[in-house]
Amino acid sequence: MARLMLEDEADFVVVGTGAGGATAARVLAGAGHSLIMLEEGPLLKTAERPKELIHAMRRAMRDFGTFTTRGMHPFPLLQGRCVGGSTAINSGIIWRTPEDVRRDWIDNYGLEELVEEKGLDRAFDIIEDELGVVETAEEISGNNALRMKMAAQKLGLPGKAMARNAKDCEGRGECLQGCPGEARQSMDVSYIPRAMRDGARLHTLCRAMKVRIENGRAVGVEGLVLDRDTRKPVGKFFVRARRGVIIAASVVWTPVILRRSGLRGLVGERLQLHPGSAVVGRFPEPISMGTGATQAYEIPMRERGFKIESLTLPPEMLATRLPGAGPAWQKLLTDLDHYAQWASIVRMKAHGTVRPAFASHDADVRFTPLDRDLKVMREALATIAKLMFAAGATEVYPGIARIPQVLTDPSQVRLIEELDLTTADIHMMCSHLFGTAVAGRDAATSVVGPDLQAHDVRDLYVMDASVFPTNMGVNPQHTIMALVWRAAERLAERARAAA
Ligand SMILES: Cc1cc2nc3c(=O)[nH]c(=O)nc-3n(C[C@H](O)[C@H](O)[C@H](O)COP(=O)(O)OP(=O)(O)OC[C@H]3O[C@@H](n4cnc5c(N)ncnc54)[C@H](O)[C@@H]3O)c2cc1C
Fold it and tell me: Could you read off the pLDDT of 442-480 as tens digits, one per residue?
């Protein structure tokens, strides 16, 4: 039996330091409550984060970026596992909640008090101000993005410069490795230090296993202390919460913790995703992908169910996207400076599930896209291929099995449009996850109420993307932060009134 290595106590205990957990900590500590943050990953100081992709991924990402769904055609679910969670590796793209999503959550899930327009806008305003949200300037966008802009204008598609929480971005294209100048205001450099200045304590390398529940009330969190190098358990911890436990371990790990704690019903159901894929184009002139913001330009096509984004890759990852083998592939490598890459993000309608894996600490995630979802993916990839040719690409690499690996003429885009695309044909990955502990007024169809408190357990809150009743068709971090901001503010007031 592992020994108890850590015991602590505070008003609130927050599990997870990503977009949700860090915002909860920022608001509750800012309101004067004592608070402990528990994070499974390490604290990575920006200056010490490795620049080489392989080391960067190993340090900051869950399972080195190889954590996947299970089933016939598994695909990676990218998540951060370090202080700051996925925000510490993300591109800082900011989108307010689309109006149709907000209306749907009010009309069909009874979430008026959470997403009522004025209150939500106020939260967005504060967050945008605190995290320095601005539109990406052309000077730091880089050719990868500017080529997309040119193509969008040619084809009459609704492109725009991305808004990001990176006011002082210098366009170094290293979001994944940790923004070198700390311009991107990920949670590890913004809300976590701020909460700590307000008195919050942070325990890293602490994997929460379950919530301790006594007489129907959450009273603390139990878990394992991990070794810094091997990430293997070396001891146990128990952290007591006087006023509330907040689980914000992400869409995958929140339901695992809740189920291990005995909660059932819809916990782990209604997983929704925005899977993506990408197309590469080769240009006669240098694109110099390494120069410019990681992501800077986007074409939102929500009415069609997808979004297109410019996406810079480090050279070693870009190389894996080039077709062929042997000398032919090596020849393509010599032109590494001449490629652009743009990605699709699809708002899929399929629902999946998350469960604790049998006899391990892992999670069992199941998600199978619907035929309709794959048709939308196909349209998105065909649109990118058209954009590439419109931007002047001489070769387009769609990365789709069962069609040529190299397209050299715009007329060949119809090969994508006519393909009966399956999940086995493409490389899919996903970094936008939603649902699994959804919020709603009705306890029969949701896990937490509009105050984000569990219907079944008092003083147990979920404050991350798990509470989203649906996916959105836009990047999620801003909506996560704003929802959590509102719920945490109310929780802080109730706790103050009860004191
Ligand atoms: C590569 C990448 C790029 C992205 N780009 C953007 C973007 O530009 N804009 C945007 O809006 N969104 C983007 N996203 C998505 C966005 O970052 C996430 O939607 C958001 O961070 C999710 O917030 P969260 O709080 O739900 O989870 P996370 O931010 O993932 O945080 C969860 C935290 O909980 C910790 N944790 C998990 N299990 C445990 C446990 N048992 N005990 C203790 N701690 C635990 C994890 O280590 C992690 O730190 C991107 C994501 C990725 C991976």
Answer: 999 999 999 999 999 999 999 999 999 999 999 999 999
H/E segment holding residue 238: strand 233-247
From CA 371, how far away is CA 35, in angstroms rounded? 46
- Classify residue 263: in a domain, yes or no: yes
Q: How far is CA 136 from the centre of its chain?
A: 20
CA angle 66–69–72, rounded 5-degree value = 115
Q: Which amino acid is at 352?
A: G
- The residues near 110 (Cβ < 8 Å, ≥ 6 apart) are 440, 441, 442, 450
257 lines ligand 1 (CB under 6 A): yes
CA nearest to 16, candidates 44, 40, 43? 40
Number of domains, the chain? 2
Band (pLDDT 50/70/90 cuts) for residue 499 is confident
**End-of-domain residue from the set 410, 430, 450:** 430
Q: Which residues pair with 93 in a beta bridge?
A: 164
Report whether pLDDT(149) > 70.
yes
- CA-wise closest residue to 90 among 362, 469, 478, 453: 478
DSSP state of 412: G
Contact 28, 487 (CB under 8 A): no
What's the distance, CA 478 to chain centroid?
11
Instruction: Say if 417 falls within a structural domain.
Output: yes
362 lies in some domain: no
Residue 465 CA, ligand 1 centroid: distance in Å: 9
Cβ(18) to ligand 1 under 6 A? Answer: yes
Distance CA 357, CA 341 (A): 35
Residue to substitute in 82, 477, 483 for testing ligand 1 pocket (most ligand atoms within 8 angstroms of CB): 477
Q: What is the mean pLDDT of residues 86-110?
A: 98
CA distance 432 to 306: 13
Q: Which atom of ligand 1 is nearest to the CA of 209?
A: 41
Q: Does the global pTM surpass 0.90?
A: yes
Give Cα 288 to chain centroid, integer Å: 26
Closest CA to 272 of 467, 448, 424, 61: 467
